[in-house]
Amino acid sequence: MKKWNNYCSDLTNESFDAIIVGSGIGGLTTAALLALNGKRVLVLEKHFKIGGWTHTFRRDNYEWDVGIHYIGDVHKPWSLVRRLFDLVSDGQLKWSPMDANYDRIIFPDQAYNLTAPREQFLEDMISYFPMEENALKTYMTLIDKAVKNSKPYFTNKAMPDLMGRITYPFMTRKFFQLADRTTYDVLSELTDNEEMIGVLTGQWGDHGLPPKRSSFAMHALVVRHYLDGGNYPTGSSRSIAETISTLIEKQGGKLAVNAAVDEIIINKGTAVGVRLASGDELNAETIISSTGVMNTYEKLISSKQLPSSIPASLQSVQKTESYICLHIGLNRSAKDLGLKNTNLWIYPGYDHDQNVENFRHDPDADFPVVYISFPSAKDEAWEQEHAGYATMEAITMSKWDWYRKWQEKPWKKRGEEYENEKEKLSTRIMDVVHRHAPGIKEAVDYMELSTPLTIRDLANYQQGEMYGVYHTPQRFRQRWLKPRTKIKNLFLTGQDVTTAGVTSALFSGLLTASAVLNKNLTNMMKS
């Protein structure tokens, strides 16, 4: 496991072209691409590990990822996703392919397999819903159309302001034909089979909104991403940050942990540096925030320096809900236990929106979803460091408000009532886990539950948000969600610039670096 350098005040004596605040995949990709183009970069991370949602944590013989569960397209060497990962990791990042059946959507009466490749996916859906063959074929066409039309929409975000404004109507018109509509609106025009709609939208947890609230564009981007299969980073998700940071250092850049930035320094409308919690100030020509739009504008910039349009812009988007995750350690290997690497999505009924509403109003209601992942079964290198052990994760939705009364108490010292609540939730979640992974009961050796407070403290999201801001149709109409800001030399990167997911945040780094350098960096990925 790579050792990270703690922040040292000696860095104030060094010169950097760009300072990146936050080391999520968007920040790391931006830094790597700038470094590859001759810029000296400094990445500052508040946490004690680099990587954001790509880092892992260990307890004894166990290791869990905190946000990366599967990634599509990287098994194809020619895909843009794979080529960009190869570029920023110097070709050192390797991938473990999942089984063809990457997701299983489970309802009380039946389970439905999502299986690669796309031809098999379609064939299976038709076998489940034989009367809906035409609707399903049309659905696949719409998925492809939405993804194809998203490319010029996202490309426009990186363009210089004047050129971007001129070309915006032409580059976005086709995209908005589907992005302006909810997932449910689009699907309900194809079929009145509510069970089929429930199955097709069974991955809604990958972006955080059920079908009556999510943009169809977001749904399409997720579905299409996995149609040809899922993969997991070999050596666990931390290998993403480790390989990219190695390239940054190789190119003369630096990364520092325990480096909390308190403020982005603005002088006469221009970003000129950052002020750390320690009081140190670091200057650079370019400042890039990878902390999310809410953190950037609400916490890192003085209200006196904030452009007048920003408060209204922030009101046009909404923070996503939070979640809880039960990390489970097993004292036998995944092979011995017969664990597969298929992700399980477990639902109490086919109406996802109703499931969510029931739970939001009554936390004792059925969980609206329980997502079970098997990281040790996905990673081909797992046995090299963890022979004879296995891990699982079980995730469900939560609300910040349910934990607000403990928010001022420090991590791991929140008192008996908080611990009792965690114990109750862990028991409820394990009841679901045992029903769908019945062979693990005697092997359960360790459990640890993270709550929205854990996420706030370790991922630095103000209310433990899972996916930044919601992916509603309105979100995609926000032109200000792009790399360039109204503050000169201040740029944004990360999932709020594009969409949720590691590959989307990866491409946000490409867009941001292209905007900083005023050049199209996709040419760097040509084989």
Walk me through this protein's architecture.
α1 packs parallel to α18 (about 500-515) and α6 crosses α8. The chain contains 18 helices and 19 strands. The longest helix is centred in the first third of the chain and has 24 residues, at about 135-155. It is globular. The protein folds into three domains: about 10-95 and about 235-315 and about 470-525, FAD/NAD(P)-binding domain, CATH 3.50.50.60; about 100-230, no CATH class; about 320-340 and about 375-460, no CATH class. The strands form four sheets. Strands 1, 2, 10, 11, 12, 13 and 19 form a seven-stranded mixed sheet that branches. Strands 8-7-15-16-17-14-18 form a seven-stranded mixed sheet. A three-stranded antiparallel sheet has the order 5-9-6. It is an alpha/beta fold.
What's a concise summary of this model?
With 527 residues, the protein is α/β, with parallel strands linked by helices. Helices cover 37% and strands 19% of the residues. It has three domains: 226 residues, FAD/NAD(P)-binding domain; 130 residues, no CATH class; 105 residues, no CATH class.
